[in-house]
Structure formats: C-alpha cells, structure tokens
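Check this.
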Amino acid sequence: MKISAPGRFARKTSALTAAVVLSASAGIAAVTNPQPASAAAAVPSYSAGIAGETWTIERPEDCDFEMGAGGNLREGDGFFPGKCQGAAEPPQITGTSENGRALTFRTDKDFEYPGAILDDPARNTWVDAAGDRLRDRSELATGWDLPFHTNVWVGFDVRIPEGVDDVTGSGAYVLQLWQCIANPIGGVRIQSGAGNGHNLQFVRRGEDPDTNYDISMATQSVGTNEWHSFVIKYNVEPYHPGGSKGSIAVYHKEVGATVEEKLFEQDEYFGYATRSICRNDSFENTFRIKFGLYKDYQPGATFRSDFRNVRIGGSKEAVQPYNRG
C-alpha cells in the first residue's frame, strides 16, 4: 500500500509541536510517551464546501489510490488532496449557487473489479486473488498535521440522499481520523445492515484492553435528503497504563431546527501508541481527517454522501455550521 508524504494543505494557520517518541530497543516495539495537557499543540484550520468560495475539483480523471494524483479540491487558498479506488467516482461538485452546492461522493453501480472473489456470502465481502479485501473510496483529506493531546474540533453538514443501498460488511465511513496505515483511530460511518442506510455511527479505535472498540459510541439517524449538522471534539490520547484519557464529544442539529443536541461526551483512550501496529513504517504522532466515502466493495450497489460547511479548528465556535458570528 502506498501513501503520500505529509503535505502542507488547506489554510494551515499554525505548525505542530512534535510529540516525543521512544526508540525501540531490539525486539521491543516503540511507544509514544504520554504528553501532559500543558504541552497541547496549536490546531491548524481547514475549511471546505463553504458558500461564497470558488470550488474546483482538479484533474478528476487522474484520481486514484495515490493521494493527490487527482480529484483534488481547490477552494480559495485551500487545497484538499483527493483519493479514489474501486467503484467510487472522483469527488464532485453538485447543485448550484442558487439551490445550494455540495461536495458529492458516490459509487458507480455498474463498476466491476476484475477477478473479484466473493469471500463471505453472509456479509457480502469481496477479495482479490491475493486475498486482500476490495474497497471503494472517494475522499478528500487534510494535511497529516492534526495534533494529539489537544482538542481538535470538526464541524460539517452531511446529507444521505434517497436511492442508496444498505451497507454490508463493516460499514461505510463518511469521515475518518487517520493516523497511519492501520484501522482509522476514529470516525463516522453509515451503519451496516438492512434498513440502516441513513444512520450514522460514531466510532474510535485504540489499544485499551478494557475497551470494546467494535461497539459504536452512538447512532444518529439523518433521514433521507435532509441536511444535518454535526460538531465533534476529538482529543486523541493513546493508551498508556495509568495515563490520562482523551475525549470525544458530538453535537447534532438538523438544518432548520432551532435546538442543538449534545449526543454524548465520553472519555476514551484512542489512537495508537505502539509503532508496530502501523504498517510500512507509517507511524505518526499526528493524524489527518478524510471525508467522503470509504467502504467495502458491493457490486451493483449505489452509495452517496454529500458534504458542505466542513471546518476544522481549535474551538467549537470556529467550526460549527450554525450560529456563526
């Protein structure tokens, strides 16, 4: 698997303070040192899908598994590299300035992976000849520069339209926190199973032996063809015995509603401290956010997510899509 080098993308307003890493002695995996709260780093700012800005998807025909090769979003002074795979189409701009634009991510139901092998009929998961799981993805990404041990706030509007199919397999991520080549350390996914195609689940992953990371923290319906706003606080703190936990909080408001709802706030260890979990020497003490669509390949199925008002920053007020100014 190939990854691009960390870039400096999209309205970054401050640099990171690097976390300290312990070198591994022979035969022992290196782990990060827990960092005191007082050493919290500044949070870069990002924005995408903002009304009044000029949006351009560059070289959609070149979008592929190499991040930034094509399908990139350029908006104002910002740049979000694209990534595509399988049945997923490049990121698109849909709608108009008059009726409302969206950043749209969807699959082509007529696409077929060459040589695809049905691996698990019950879960409808497919692999290639080497046994690797086949995936579909259409994503835009921030830089690899969002800090651990710090409140990183993410705000966005999301819409799941009618006509999408139910998700099989492990669910379909519409937003991921990506530390390295391993399972994402957090994110938002469409719930798998019949009748769940318009339910979003909030998840995280780490190394705490007392936490079942396979269970989502909350599930929220977003209806059909409805815009819903979410604001999420991520404070990533990998597991260290006796160390302080991180935290995740999620706020929700249907567009047009008057009341914001706090879905939950929970203290958790999440993120990776052990270098060997990350394949291809990709371990980082920072993370990036990817949004769009990432899922198991499902031949003949249609999926789509729409985004707008995506912001990342250091406070709730800076990123929330509503009550601005």
In short: The chain has one domain: 37-319.
